[in-house]
Design brief:
This protein is α+β, with helices and mostly antiparallel strands. The chain has 1 helix and 7 strands, in the order αβββββββ. Strands 4-6-5 form a 3-stranded antiparallel sheet, with no helix packed on it. A two-stranded antiparallel sheet has the order 1-2.
Length: 133
């Protein structure tokens, strides 16, 4: 009888393993690579290439990449007050209040962050963020 119980348990474990194996493979297939970026750099601003933003200056800190979400902390000091911009991928069905595009095709949701208070740019600050750029 003990052999029958052990064989039954072994068969159950085998069947459970066959059921769970594809699920765990899918879980690992959906996992994304995490990369750590730590940098200190001096960046000069240039003309913003975004449609409708050509009169603005832009200092690109992290380049937008499809499917990539950056998160971290930005600390900056500038010679003039600046607005911090965070771009996020737009998911189907989302209708963001503000968008940003360079070519009119690919668009990102645009969020302005004012570290000097309500709608007041600041020449220096530090902020935690998460976004596509």
């Amino acid at each position: 009888m003990n052999k029958t119980v052990i064989a039954g348990i072994a068969a159950g474990v085998l069947v459970l393993g066959l059921i769970l194996a594809p699920l765990s493979i899918d879980q690992f297939a959906a996992a994304k690579r995490i990369e750590r970026i730590v940098t200190t750099q001096q960046i000069e601003s240039s003309q913003d290439p975004g449609q409708g933003h050509q009169a603005h200056q832009l200092a690109l800190i992290l380049p937008p990449k499809d499917g990539v979400v950056y998160s971290g902390r930005l600390t900056y000091s500038a010679t003039q007050p600046v607005e911090v911009v965070v771009l996020q991928d737009i998911k189907p069905g989302d209708t963001p209040a503000k968008t940003y595009t360079i070519d009119g095709e690919k668009k990102w949701a645009l969020t302005l962050i004012f570290l000097g208070g309500e709608k007041t740019p600041s020449a220096s600050g530090s902020i935690s963020f998460a976004g596509a750029a």
